[in-house]
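Progress report, Aim 2. The chain analyzed during this reporting quarter is listed below.
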Amino acid sequence: MSLSPVKFEILENMLLHDKPVKPIQVSKEIGKKFPSVMMHIIGLAKMGYATSPEKGYYTITVEGKKTLGLPEVTKQLARTLLVGELHDKAFHFYLDLDKPLDAKAYNLQTFNAQLKRIQVESIDFHMKRGDFEAWFGGIGDLELAKRTVLLKNKNLDGEVLRRRLQMMTVNRCIALAKIAGYTVVTK
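Predicted structure tokens for the chain:
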């Protein structure tokens, strides 16, 4: 079943949020009137693409993710993304063209570690070029690639972009750890 452009946009917005979100927030973020957004979210819930884990909050479901073209992640892929030594697919950070930095990421955990210390100009450079989403897709995390595209469309930069990207990738690591069967410890 194909979705209307508005329902598709709402699902994409929900995907960008790692936690359940209020419809009024979705309404503000996509620039549509609240009553219309609320009705679309109710429709998405009836179709099984969204769910309400607590009163007044909604989140995308596995079926909703599939509708956006995102496959389910296997236990093995989750483990590879988190702790695999993807040396042949390492992400190399640059400050600009022909200005490599001495920083690489071999999996999502090392990517997160580099995000904390890398120069913010490097993050801006790679985000504008689409390098992050290309790498995430290349290592097999299509969901994180899609989320990164959605984040890029918000035109953030500097420390605001760093914090949002860090939060998104840390939450993705937590979700993947649960799929992989690892114990998750948060500070």
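The chain has a mean pLDDT of 95. The longest strand covers residues 99-105. These observations will guide the mutagenesis work planned for the next reporting period.
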